[in-house]
């Protein structure tokens, strides 16, 4: 594997699908929304992306089974009031290096472009670093019209105070050079745990924009499970960070051969 | 996007244009000078540079509109007392990695070389880290003659005390291998805010060297606006840095999948 | 040397060999096991891997002789109760950058794939950062069947608490895309010294799984030597780290030219 | 400039030249030795190496003249008692990233290989981090015979206590794969200043090995000048490090665009 590649699982014929990107990021806000959509609407996986720009590791699931780093493309046909097709992108990682982010996001834009995508929604979290009472949804858009549309849906526009870092920003930026328009929706989140409340806020607005109906109560349930996981997650995080320190100590040992 | 590329917007025929580089750097000193020149002299954008070596992000402007990372080439025809043509390079970012800096600056030198450039001015700031009373202008040159010329314009030559880091240095270095001569002008600046005073000092000398007339008073106005932005900028900077910390904390969360 | 390459020393014809990876990692646990197997079973070196993704350095052995960074492939024919062939990978380093890890591990998977490998064992340590009384062996597998097999051999399955970082994880992940199945065995270790006790725990289980007989007492001896080296190793490590600091200080000196 | 390249200035025909590498490193020990040889023996520059793996910057000399990052190859014909030809490599920088070091050192080995080099001497410093009374010379070699030869010249062999990091190590390691033999000589140095005493120790041994006569008294003089520069150097180093901090603060400002 010398460069990013996308393995097609099913050849699908989509009609100007709407592209929803929700790779893991702050508070896993976007990821939770997209995974809920995939499960509730029975989206079908049709391609997988692998990249040497992912972290050089694998995950282990709850049964001790190894899971490689990957991004996954799902599709939906004729969905919602407008009978639109969709491509939804989720995954267990993003690119690690800046150049790697460009390589992967370019491959994604190429791929969805070939499937006729003209419109992009990228989903993420906006970390506040402090407790959030009722999460707002922040947004930005590639055109004035889309920015106005967001305001009409009670999205707070981000204005000139920093950028959008990672896949959620870069996919929109690269899309602009490929005649794709789009918006980024960011749920306000403390950022230091998996935040289902922020996900619900994003999903509530997203389904109004897309005219799609979803059982938000079920995201409640998913949220509940997630909340139970949080303390365990924090414990793991600490363990991981301890381990990383050990590995780095070990690096020096390598010099002994 | 696998490598740096330059998108031509207008084909222009220029006569040994003088190249002015002012990508963002310390105190945004060069950037302010170049943007003032572009606006006052009605320079015309004719090309844009995109690169996978830019930071993997987008900016959001004051209206919530997404702006991709890019560098922009402007031109001016038959300007100043000597009726010279000009290419001015500005942008919202520089390359992130060392190798990326080389890739981008090489692409820039190739591009301006094809337009007949033989002479380069790179503009930047020289950070002192402490308040500056009346900013001096420091300089360095690729030839003895140009160094003498700088001294004649009250530029303080930098001498053997460090190098010139980033695009302002590298573009001159790479230009030397392509038979281009040039100088770097650096306005003395505390470095921790957008410094219009340092920009005025650089512009004052630059317009004498180039025999170009510019309304420096208007840079005063621009400076005033900039100064108002400073406190906001510092606040944002803090916010950004807080957010980066959250993102990095989040990196560990990714391990949970 | 622009990319990773493998130099073949002997052309060997192997019959669906089992691949054992044991590049240096936490506590040198895997490396000790593999080196013991190589010496006790008289495995034969048949290929060497070199890579620009290795650290830019050489080692010096106990006689002042320079040893380049490399990974080494050994083979065994018709070994153990099942008369299986083996490929064993050891070395004095792993790839340094994440992209480098992918480049090297991909080259390894390509190479062993051409030799007919369908089954992989990666060996490593799991660092606890604190003293370990009686080291457990942790494991993970690419399939449910292999995970069950591990449980049957008293291996503690790792479950959803982080990933497997480095070659031991990545080789299994990349192998999965190449129809290779496999497991990772990790000996519990404090992680901050070369840990022969953890190696013995891993070897005890590995030889039962593979139905291979090895003189574990001799690993005792090797362990004894290793233990004597530990205090020297720690001293060297400190020296190395001091030197690195000096080098980094020196980096600044370079600016003086 | 997409990759490392070597610009030939003069085509020279050399007879199995001895290659001496002395790129800048700890205490500038090797660099001082090689520059002294070049000046005393009137070596002639015949090639220059440029690389995108060098730091993205330029230096400014004592007259305000810009000097690009480069490595320089000099030659000597029929020198010393044995009438040997020589190639001497000096420069103002080494590669920055690990991969860059490999790219550059591979280009160097290719280049000198084409000129018939079979024997390499790499010169450097070994930092102790504390004052050194009478600097020893440490060494390592690619063969037992060369290691014995070093011992015969009162060189202290480095033994299994760490590696040789950077060009001095890597050039020997890559040379081994190209049938070149060689040694590394390292002068003991505190490491935090330009150390002419360590250089004299290395040169004393080197000229005995090579049977070349050099005016070591003149290195005394050069040493004296160097010593005067030291306090200035340390001051600059501080200034540079302050400036780097400012630049890094500035990185955040870039987000404002």
UniProtKB/TrEMBL annotation, chains A, B, C, D:
Its Gene Ontology cellular component terms are: proteasome complex
- Give the UniProt keywords, A-Z: Coiled coil, Proteasome
Stretches assigned to coiled coil? 209-236
- Pfam families this protein is in? PAC2 (PF09754)
Please verify whether the record's keywords include Nucleotide-binding: no
PANTHER family (alphabetical): 3-ISOPROPYLMALATE DEHYDRATASE (PTHR35610:SF7), 3-ISOPROPYLMALATE DEHYDRATASE-RELATED (PTHR35610)
The molecule here is called Proteasome assembly chaperone family protein
Organism, per UniProt? Methanobacterium spitsbergense
